[in-house]
Amino acid sequence: MKTTINQVGQFVNQEVTIGAWIANKRSSGKIAFLQLRDGTGFIQGVVVKAEVEEDVFKFAKSITQESSVYITGKVRADERAPSGYELTITAMELIHEAVDYPITPKEHGTEFLMDHRHLWIRSKKQHAVLKIRNEIIRATYEFFNKEGFVKVDPPILTGSAPEGTSELFATKYFDEDAYLSQSGQLYMEAAAMALGRVFSFGPTFRAEKSKTRRHLIEFWMIEPEMAFVEFDENLEIQEQYVSYIAQSVLENCQLELKTLGRNQESLQKIQAPFPRITYDEALAFLHKEGFDDIEWGDDFGSPHETAIANHYDKPVFITHYPTTLKPFYMQPDSKREEVVLCADLIAPEGYGEIIGGSERINNLELLEQRLNEHQLDPKAYEWYAELRKYGSVPHSGFGLGLERTVAWMAGVEHVRETIPFPRLLNRLYP
User: Taking every annotated instance into account, which residue ranges of this chain make up the domain Aminoacyl-transfer RNA synthetases class-II family profile (predicted)?
Assistant: First the structure.
């Protein structure tokens, strides 16, 4: 019976054949232990000299790391095994012999591993991170489909930018200037006026010369936009969504979380509702904690966000930032014009902002005023302004950064490990 590693539990005490790679091996006299992987998971295969043909045992002892093989053996339940199963091998067939595989079971430097990212993703921990990424993506589609959202794909090449063009990659679109998208939000607002509740999921690009553990040049964003949804309801949808994906990871990625040594207690606490504090309250808290260098109107940096997040055991919303700190499209608070109806969701454990969102301006005159204040070309945003001209309604949205969310839920230090092939300030290879 041909099967895969993640399906062997269906065949206990039966003989199966699996196509696999040799992740690692060791031998102890008359027994060889092979760590096998097939993409769906990892399992240990045991070759006992006395129970197999001599050439099978010889082959097991000599097979090289990352060689590909067909393995035939009997599935045994084993409580000590991470997956709960082990394979007693009876036959092996070589598909391809790997020679001098560069990533050995010893310590390698980060740059070496990044140069060999195309191979590093085969390792157990990187495999676990990418499986958790996949689960977050799966749960994202499930959540928004269940909640009646429509998936819409905004363009990647744009002629304007939601937050100005200073950190965008410019290109030529025949005889026009164009940019790689830093957000699909403006287009998603248009889609919301047609379809009610929409979400996008796609790549975004920031030409930001940052080397922190939270930044990538190319990353993926989930961006919902909702007609007839005001500020408070927007926050409720965000916390329900984040709670949903966290519980999905807990339910469906137990093996991966254990492989990564992730503290699951902190993930279990990610259930709505989340605490909310205003920018003013956050500023007062920071002053109390000894951050005397920050004043009203200053943006929060990583140390500030971490200090605030450490005060809670769930993600925390920081709301009502000064208007001057935020993009042109955010709706001001009617009771206090110098702040906007926005919120950043800060993850615990030092992972920083994972969501930025707001109620959007729905008044044409105010939007035109903001475009002028931000020195943005009104012609480039004419189509966007027309959304306020023809049946404007209150509407809100947010954007969640996938890689930061994966880093947080998987408990990994740097976002470069949360995407298969990261694009960093100094890296466009492989």
Answer: 130-430
